Protein 1
Amino acid sequence: MKTRLLILAASLPLAGCISFGAKPPPSLLTLEATAAPAVGAEQNSAKTRSITIQVPSTPTSIAGARVPVQATPTTIAYVKDAQWAEPPARLFARLLSDAVSARSNMVVLSTVQSISDPSATLTGELRRFGLDATARDAVVTYDAALTRAGGDTVEKRRFEARVPVSAIDATNAGTALSQAANRVAGDVAAWVAAR
């Protein structure tokens, strides 16, 4: 009994030192779509063009949940207490799908759905998705690559949007990046619809 008490007493000071992960931020960031398909709206790929939108590739600096800040041309930091609810590439792909579906009169199909439907394919790289400390902007840069249905050539175009931020913090980062992402998604939707 005495031995157990000694072991328990010895381990108490360590209990406050042990951590199984970083303390989560008070809230997680996500993107709010400004254009999305109407609830209950029916779409049919037999009556209109269809497209498959892939989750874009990303550099390592934006592949995770943290929000990067380009401090200088060659250094990156991260916004304190700012963390995405899921990887930015997935958030952006979903936002892009909503924008294309709502603004281009195209049916957006999943990869599985496109197997039996000859759809166009939109792929790309999300090059920047963070803050620029020197310009005090939120920056979203997306390099799009479009292959038309039944085609074997690729059309590429770079899209970028910048939204000013008053402070480099979690609240301003989330709002400004959502606005910038929506601008890029709208521009991509207009480009895809014209193709």
Note: The mean pLDDT is 85.
Protein 2
Amino acid sequence: MAEPEEPLRVAVVDDHPVYRDGLAVLLGSVSGLVVVGTAADGAEAVALAREEQPDVVVMDVQMPVLDGIEATRRITAESPSIGVVVLTMSEDDGTVFAAVRAGARGYLLKGADQEEVIRAITTVAGGGAVFGAALARRIGEFFAAGPTGPETAFPQLTTREREVLELVAAGRSNAQIAAALYLSPKTVRNNVSNVLTKLQVTDRAQAIVRAREAGLGR
């Protein structure tokens, strides 16, 4: 007789308790899946993944403390064997590509039905990737364009952070960046701060040097 297969171990991460608990109960009721833990923010998710080493993490994007994109990046960097399925309300390209760059292997909209979610988990656990049809087409078009030097630099940055870094490297002030990207000065300050942290540099001048070395801001 064949040995019964080990169940797939899944962690659920979402800051909305009703959605999180509902999804955990739903997945826990499926034969072949076991929920090993839940987390309410990205920092908890990283700690949970480190401790439990699940096969798959179902990850919300918009969360306090640490967002789902950054949590995904940390989890996949520490444990490449863990597959992350990102679950979000948003279908915008920036979020999709940020998730892909962070190491997510699945991307589902929160309206996805039970079968879609389960199929995504089992596919990602098996080493595959899952993106909705519309998303898959856009990702295909994006990557078909081929890598273009600066585009592949700094994969840890979100699309918005890359845009801000590009303008910083071009010598623009925060006020000029805010005007160019139609953002508030506070949002620009936060993005610049995130960029400095992610590039592990202490000030704007160092960020400009790193960016220009990579071909940005020319």
Note: Residues 185-199 form the longest helix (15 residues).
Protein 3
Amino acid sequence: MRYRPISPEVLTAELTDRVAALAPGRRIAVAIDGADHATSAAGLADSLAGPLRVRGRETLRVSARGFLRPASLRFEHGKRDPDARYTDWLDLGGLRREVLEPLGDGGTGEVLPALWDPSRDRATRLPRVPVPEGGVVLVDGEFLQGAGLAFDFVVHLWLSLPALRRRIPDDDAWALPAYERYEAEVDPSALADVVIRVDDPRHPAVYEP
């Protein structure tokens, strides 16, 4: 693989250009896909919101963490089961129903920014937010590819396995087999529109085939 080193500032500018040019006049969903606590998926998504608004694309930020399933379902096999982390934690149906389907043709355009508060383990009861024509919804999270979620554009933050082992917090290291399974079964780099190597987040690099 060939990677082009890039500064975080130039990366934000390049991604802004790519996203702003997508489907003018239509609502779109953009995923920033990366391992929780080991990549800066949320930070990258945040950095795109302002520049996209300046470019005339109204933007709404959504985190997949707002669509985790209730604790009774996530932790049915224990709090540190990597297979459950991979297959059972994210409420795919809720994310599809409340975020992605409203953006599609014939959708209402009204998006629910979060469905579940995992820290309080209860529904958020947030109001829906209208996304205007031409608006962009930026969704950050892990394991967002390979599950049939209809994103219009996907950025995948990739780490080598040694870097992932270094970067993941000690209390989250039990999830490593889930990330290895995602890499082996889904090959997210092959599916994404843009792949960014983030072994060192201060010095990202963009994959160029």
Note: The chain has one domain: 3-199.
